[in-house]
Design a protein that fits this description.
The complex is a heterodimer of chains A (451) and B (109). Chain A is mostly helical. Chain A has 15 helices and no strands. Chain A is elongated, with a radius of gyration of 29 Å. In chain B, helix 1 (3-13) packs across helix 2 and helix 1 packs across helix 4. Chain B is elongated. The chains are: A mainly alpha (451), B alpha+beta (109).
Chain lengths: 451, 109
């Protein structure tokens, strides 16, 4: 009898990962058998069995799984975003794009987050499993609510009598919200800490979870929101993994970080010129926007409103290219070597945006040109992020590629399309930085002179 | 420090114990108020071992069953002493407040 019972315990322990079983299965089986003997149990109780299953599943949610799920979530989110943005047709691809970027990617990112929080011991195994399962339910219900809402919308659009779809959409959305809040509650309970009384802590956790489930849910369901959530979880997972590896290595290799050679700073005279150049670029940029908005009222120009808008924005983009190339060089000389290639890439993207502006809205290739122009912006983000990422070079390169793809999808188009508008702001900020540098430089010279 | 960690460290303060003995000691020390599941105990032992508060102190096989012994590590002893001090401060404050309340009610009676 005891042999059958112990065999049943051994079977239940298969819920744990193999690596864990190799290290812990025998002592755990010994404890389970001792406990069953003391209780006179002839087989595992239902509560014992469920406890083993939940803890075993939770043990499988580790840092490696978090990293894998986050990487897949980002890939799915980028694929979804690309399907929404690319001009490859309407209905099926668009719907697939929204489903990938707004449902599947955030669902995978939620699982990755639960695994990450378990790995970092913020959540225990049962809480991580509950958070995972309820988050999957939340995203499935949110998908159902979207489908029902879409059906109700089409019925109303076609003037057909209203079916149950509208009411069902509301019910499913509320159920998704409740599941999302249930998934987040264990996290908030852990974050609020064990030092507080249980009831206020749980009440506060429930309220915060409800608010977060509503806001995060709506944000993550947008394709760009899904990309942002996925890249944030991926960066957190990469960082946690690198920290674990560095903890293991830190006692072995004490490495003295080399002191980087200081870049020679520009003289105050150079800074004065920088301030003037950047201010001038800002003023010309504002002038370009002014011409874009009111150029048609200038008789000498001989342009209609659309032509004036295109010409003004194209000129503004050209000024933006100069601003992007000059700003880091003139205002932040210590960063100029590191910022040179990213600035060049952003300038390339802005140039593409200017070309799209000159092509005009009637051109069939305006949108493709804009999409291609967004790519160098993503590459610039990847290059900027690369030195700050932890881990080996393969992991860093892969993460930087993910960050770059996410940046191209989320920020690429806004950056190249609105360059004439943000460039003057950049120019003004950079000119202020250059002016402060000039004052600092003058003070330093004066201080040296007075010694 | 959560309650599970507190009772496990307390159970190990008297000396090394194997897993099932820790379970019994926790129930006995807490007067039956705390009864841990094997899975919860094992997860807590792993966590405390990873944070260097306890350490493995050998293994043996008794009647065909593996037993792994654990001992309180210096970090665990320091954490338990800090928790005891924290609880003492709270207890003293509560006791003093109750004493003052009792004195006030006696004076007004």
């Amino acid at each position: 009898m005891a042999k059958d019972r112990d065999a049943a315990f051994r079977r239940l322990l298969r819920w744990y990962p193999a690596g864990w079983r190799a290290q812990h299965a025998e002592p755990m089986l010994g404890m389970l058998a001792d406990d069953a003997d003391a209780r006179g149990a002839t087989r595992p109780s239902a509560s014992d069995a469920w406890s083993i299953r939940v803890h075993g599943l939770g043990e499988r949610l580790d840092g490696r799984v978090a990293l894998l799920l986050a990487a897949v979530a980002l890939a799915v989110a980028v694929a979804g975003g690309a399907l929404v943005l690319l001009p490859i047709g309407a209905a099926p691809w668009l719907s697939i794009g929204y489903a990938l970027g707004g449902l599947l990617a955030p669902a995978l990112a939620s699982l990755a987050l639960a695994a990450l929080l378990r790995e970092t011991r913020v959540l225990g195994a049962p809480a991580a499993v509950v958070a995972s399962l309820t988050s999957i339910a939340a995203w499935a219900l949110a998908g159902g609510a979207q489908v029902a809402w879409s059906l109700a919308f089409h019925e109303a659009d076609a003037g057909a009598p209203a079916s149950l779809a509208g009411g069902l959409a509301v019910l499913l959305a509320l159920a998704a919200l409740a599941c999302g809040a249930a998934a987040l509650t264990p996290i908030w309970i852990a974050v609020l800490g064990p030092g507080r009384a249980r009831r206020p802590r749980w009440t506060a956790a429930a309220l915060l979870s409800l608010l977060c489930a509503a806001s995060l849910g709506v944000f993550a369901m947008m394709p760009s929101g899904g990309v942002v959530v996925a890249v944030a979880v991926l960066l957190a997972a990469v960082r946690a993994r690198a920290q674990q590896q560095s903890v293991a290595e830190v006692e072995r290799v004490p490495v003295a970080s080399p002191v980087p050679p200081r870049t020679a700073l520009p003289t105050p005279l150079w800074s004065a010129r920088s301030t003037v150049v950047l201010t001038l670029l800002g003023v010309i940029g504002v002038g370009c926007i002014g011409f874009a908005l009111s150029g048609s009222s200038v008789p000498a120009a001989g342009l209609d409103a659309t032509q004036a808008m295109n010409a003004g924005l194209a000129a503004g983009s050209a000024v933006a290219i100069l601003t992007v190339l000059c700003a880091p060089r003139l205002a932040l000389p210590r960063l100029r070597a590191r910022a040179r290639v990213p600035a060049l890439l952003v300038a390339l993207g802005v140039g593409g945006g200017a070309a799209a502006q000159l092509l005009g809205a009637e051109s069939a290739i305006q949108w493709p040109v804009l999409l291609v122009a967004a790519l160098p912006v993503g590459a610039a983000a990847a290059l900027v992020s690369l030195p700050h990422l932890p881990g080996g070079w393969v992991a860093r390169a892969a993460t930087a590629a993910g960050v770059g793809a996410a940046a191209a999808i989320v920020a690429g188009l806004p950056v190249v399309m609105t360059a004439p508008f943000w460039a003057p702001v950049l120019a003004v900020v950079a000119s202020i930085l250059a002016a402060r540098r000039r004052r600092g430089g003058s003070r330093s010279v004066a201080a040296i002179g007075s010694v | 420090m959560n309650e599970t960690s507190f009772w496990i460290l307390t159970a190990l303060a008297e000396g090394p114990r194997h897993g099932y003995a820790i379970l019994g000691a926790v129930t006995s020390l807490s007067d039956g108020a705390v009864s841990l599941r094997i899975t919860t105990l094992y997860a807590a032992l792993e966590r405390l071992e990873q944070s260097a508060q306890i350490a493995r102190a050998g293994e043996e096989v008794v009647a065909g069953r593996a037993r792994r012994y654990y001992a309180l590590a210096p970090e665990g002893r320091a954490a338990l002493e800090a928790e005891v001090e924290r609880l003492r401060v709270r207890t003293d404050a509560a006791r003093a407040a109750l004493r003052r309340a009792a004195a006030t009610s006696w004076a007004s009676a």
